């Protein structure tokens, strides 16, 4: 009887460990969808919690950043670099991407499987790894006439979407083959994101956006009045908002809020708390890199500007490390800044 009880307790403990691991992985990989339904009480964001890390990251202009756990992160650059950290951003190793064209966005769907989009006037490309970045396979998306892709979202290891100029394609086999999502698509598709397995949004350089509620099988074109150039997509506490130049538009009611001028990219933690990054010019020749924090959805905000060693600085990548840490990358001619925000 006691032996049976011990076996039951061991099985229960083992199942609990598997469940905890699954929950932990889902937290990190859901970050890549720019989605938040966080109901946890988050303390107010403060500039005093911004910490510049003395990191050895190779200098470049990094546009994409993601973490698969609190220590393991990847960044991609405009010169084709892929770098990886395994200690929370202090040390970075240059991975062998085998490409030199600009890389724009990176997403990992498991600890080992990740995707990168990039390209130039020679065409659009997808890079894929299945061994945590040790090696990468380059897949030509055959979009030579229309340049680099703009957006990407993979729902899992097999099913993904990529957008670009006259490009909106889908794969169901991990990127090996691709099919057009929309017949005769002749628009500039900017971003594509899914809130869950069924609900997704794609934006274009016009007053319309595309919505799916069946996992991407069918897409409906929806017009927005007096709105153009819809770009980045954010799912915030049950709402869908898209960036439109200097505004954020709520797709539910077409209401909008104005963003501070330097903000180029955003990372929402919940409906009120958000990080914005970008660049602004003052009287000096070199521009300042900016990190902005809001605790009331841009009603008010805190701003910190960086201009180290009289060089141009621009913050271009931001990502969650875990539920209490954010990493931000700033790019200059001489070096790349690594800044961490604790909250």
UniProtKB/TrEMBL annotation:
GO-annotated biological processes: photosynthesis
GO cellular component entries: photosystem II
SUPFAM superfamilies: Oligoxyloglucan reducing end-specific cellobiohydrolase, Sialidases
Pfam families: PSII_BNR
Superkingdom assignment: Bacteria
Alphabetized UniProt keyword annotations: Photosynthesis, Photosystem II
Domain Photosynthesis system II assembly factor Ycf48/Hcf136-like: 59-151, 153-227
PROSITE patterns in the record: PROKAR_LIPOPROTEIN
Name by which UniProt lists this protein: Photosynthesis system II assembly factor Ycf48/Hcf136-like domain-containing protein
Species this chain originates from: Flavobacterium silvisoli
């Amino acid at each position: 009887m006691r032996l049976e009880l011990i076996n039951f307790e061991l099985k229960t403990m083992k199942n609990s460990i598997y469940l905890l691991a699954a929950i932990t992985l889902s937290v990190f990989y859901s970050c890549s969808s720019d989605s938040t339904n966080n109901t946890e009480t988050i303390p107010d964001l403060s500039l005093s919690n911004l910490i510049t890390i003395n990191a050895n990251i190779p200098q470049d202009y990094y546009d994409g950043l993601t973490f698969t756990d609190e220590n393991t992160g990847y960044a991609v650059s405009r010169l084709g670099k892929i770098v990886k950290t395994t200690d929370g951003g202090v040390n970075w190793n240059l991975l062998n991407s085998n490409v030199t064209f600009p890389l724009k966005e990176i997403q990992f769907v498991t600890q080992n499987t990740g995707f990168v989009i990039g390209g130039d006037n020679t065409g659009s490309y997808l890079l894929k790894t299945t061994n945590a970045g040790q090696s990468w396979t380059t897949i030509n998306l055959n979009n030579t006439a229309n340049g680099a892709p703009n957006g990407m979202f993979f729902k899992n290891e097999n099913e993904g979407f990529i957008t670009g100029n006259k490009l909106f394609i889908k794969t169901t086999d991990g990127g090996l083959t691709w099919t057009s999502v929309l017949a005769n698509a002749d628009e500039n598709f900017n971003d594509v994101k899914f809130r869950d397995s069924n609900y997704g949004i794609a934006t274009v350089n016009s007053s319309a956006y595309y919505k799916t509620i069946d996992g991407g099988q069918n897409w409906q074109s929806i017009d927005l009045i007096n709105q153009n150039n819809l770009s980045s997509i954010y799912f915030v506490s049950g709402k869908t908002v898209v960036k439109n130049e200097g505004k954020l538009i709520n797709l539910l009611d077409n209401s909008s809020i104005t963003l501070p001028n330097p903000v180029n990219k955003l990372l929402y933690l919940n409906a009120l708390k958000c990080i914005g990054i970008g660049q602004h010019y003052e009287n000096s020749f070199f521009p300042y890199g900016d990190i902005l924090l809001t605790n009331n959805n841009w009603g008010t905000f805190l701003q910190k500007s960086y201009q180290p060693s009289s060089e141009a600085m621009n913050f271009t990548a931001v990502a969650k490390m875990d539920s209490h840490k954010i990493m931000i990358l700033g790019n200059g001619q001489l070096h790349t800044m690594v800044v961490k925000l604790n909250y």
